[in-house]
Amino acid sequence: MKVDMHVHTLKSSCSLNPIRLLKKLCSKMGILPFICDHNTLTKTDFGIPGEEISTDRGEFIGLFLNEAVNDRDIFEAMDKVKEQGGLIYLPHPFDENRGRSLCRYNILNDREFKKRVDIVEVFNSRCRDNRPNEMAYQYAKMNNMLMGVGSDSHFPWELGNAYLILEEEFDRDNPKDFLRVLKKNNKSGFKYYGKLGSPINMICSKISKKINNSGSLRLPKLKFNKDMIRYL
Ligand SMILES: [Zn+2]
Ligand SMILES: [Zn+2]
């Protein structure tokens, strides 16, 4: 089965992935998505609920959540995920091009932090080049952490850019069962598909955020006078 561990819906202001379309695309491509909106828990009838949580020390993802986590303190937020039986997944931890990546907050080597980590995203399709992905891979290997991948899809055309290839199904309500299948995948050669998307996707996200935050797309008002019309 194919699993994309990092997908957004239009509940994230930087995304324009309509939930119904996402559902259709996922079933067409045979992908099970982990839905990880920014600071919102979006529950769907087809994906695994997660949340990309912004904290005072960067962002991480909580997976298999029942309740949203709003804590600003990173350790409190991580503990809230664990208290509800969820998993902690580190998205694009070494991508310096993104303001909320963990590498910018001097936390990745903190012992208390590392103790809580379940999975590292070692391939994210929204990185500009592969260097941050390679660094994440080395980090996971060095620390003996499990590895996962995600497209970080914010738009329909990004879906399918990355997914794990799991040899076995898992119980969708049971994070431990997912870990069991993921461990098998990691041990037997870590099968996944991953390609980098276009950097234009990041610009599209910025525009989408602007539109969403202003409530509407405001175009500058144009006033015409006779002189201008002559030029049209
Ligand atoms: Zn986003
Ligand atoms: Zn994301």
TrEMBL record:
InterPro entries referenced in this protein's UniProt entry, alphabetically: PHP_domain, Pol/histidinol_Pase-like
Entry-linked Pfam families: PHP_C
Highest taxon of source: Archaea
Transmembrane portions of the chain: none
Record-linked Gene3D superfamilies: Metal-dependent hydrolases (3.20.20.140)
GO MF entry, a single one: 5'-3' DNA exonuclease activity
Name of protein: PHP domain-containing protein
Source organism of this protein record: Methanothermococcus okinawensis
Taxonomy of the source species: Archaea, Methanobacteriati, Methanobacteriota, Methanomada group, Methanococci
